[in-house]
Design a protein that fits this description.
2 copies of one chain form a homodimer. The first copy, chain A, is an alpha/beta fold. Chain A contains 9 helices and 10 strands. The first copy, chain A, has 2 domains: 71 residues, Winged helix-like DNA-binding domain superfamily/Winged helix DNA-binding domain (Arc Repressor Mutant, subunit A, Orthogonal Bundle), CATH 1.10.10.10; 112 residues, NAD(P)-binding Rossmann-like Domain (Rossmann fold), CATH 3.40.50. In chain A, helix 2 crosses helix 3. The longest helix of chain A has 19 residues. Chain A is globular, with a radius of gyration of 20 Å. The interface between A and B is large, with 66 and 66 residues.
Chain lengths: 212, 212
């Protein structure tokens, strides 16, 4: 994989995922080409933005012809690291959120395979979750070290999240998706993404306030 | 509320939420001022970006002194429509995801109050969920119309999402947060935000690919 010397904004990565979804949708409709103008309009950004986002990764598209949909989708999948690749994911927390994430189809479709689930609740430990036995969170470090996991998802209550994060770092997990509403203290080299669902609602209330 | 004539990027609104969380954290630590430089560093964006984001809404901060943390947080809460205001939210879907969202503390803290829950499963209808009785989704339109709801959250399986969206539009809901992995067909005036959790994982796999 080529390395990217330039600083790539987080929002660009996010938009690449959005472009990919749109390209896949257009492809499934039998379309073969799209201009940056039409694509940008569909995505609600400027076409300069689309071109800038893609320019970090090379040259795409031809003037007058636009982007080849299938090729661009393939390239974006490569960039995002989801091209013919699977990622081994550990899920910490088998509560409502954990179970919802476990059965989330989109993960599997994109190559993110949840291969271990942990919880600290004796009532949950040992239970079967879609073919996987929920493990005691006490066994997290040895299990993840041995199993060479890539990504961990934290879906535990706020109070336990930091402790879980510490164990994940000890288990040499390099990427964490955190659902606990808490600023985790982890080493800089560990890649962290926080999901804060109230932020999504705040974006709605912003627009609703404007309508009032 | 003042109206915003300029086009405000979705990503700016998203970052406002991020800034707000950081400002609140700093405020709780007793800090009173912060420069755009320090704030931007903490948020992983450039300080020009911070200033541009805020510039849509007026002039903030003083040179040399920086931003007054409490004032800026208050202003951002106003902009986001979460300043001393509550929003009435309906939740459609009482499965794992729905129940996880229902018990999500962050919503309540920010003034988003889930006041009705709907499902189509006879085993779930009538059950108590944290003090609220789960209603039959068949009663969605009259209930929401009568109750003057602001926001609806769709947490139903993909197959039922479009039907639910149609009912929500009929019930004159103006803002929808959609968790179903599906492009909903709704009128342009309805504000829609889609949550696609695999996009968060794609951002992690992007960085992991770079490390390989």
């Amino acid at each position: 994989m080529r390395s990217f010397s330039k600083f790539i904004p987080q929002t660009t990565i996010y938009r690449l995922s959005l472009y990919l979804r749109e390209l896949e949708r257009l492809n499934s409709k039998g379309l073969t080409h799209i201009s940056s103008k039409v694509l940008s309009k569909k995505m609600g950004v400027t076409d300069a933005q689309v071109r800038r986002d893609l320019s970090y990764f090379g040259k795409f598209g031809k003037s007058r012809v636009g982007y080849n949909i299938e090729k661009l989708a393939k390239k974006i999948r490569q960039i995002l690291g989801i091209d013919n690749k699977t990622w081994k994911v550990a899920l910490i927390g088998a509560g409502n959120l954990g179970r919802a994430l476990f059965s989330y189809k989109g993960f599997r479709e994109r190559g993110f395979l949840i291969k271990a689930v942990f919880d600290s609740d004796p009532l949950k430990i040992g239970k079967d979750l879609g073919g996987i036995r929920v493990k005691d969170v006490k066994d997290l470090v040895p299990t993840l070290k041995k199993g060479k996991f890539d990504i961990a998802i934290i879906a535990v209550p706020q109070e336990s999240a930091q402790e879980v994060a510490k164990a994940l770092v000890k288990a040499r997990i390099r990427a964490i998706l955190n659902f606990a509403p808490l600023r985790l203290d982890i080493p800089q080299k560990t890649i962290l993404r926080n999901v804060d669902l109230s932020m999504e609602l705040e974006s709605l209330s912003f627009y609703l306030s404007k309508l009032r």
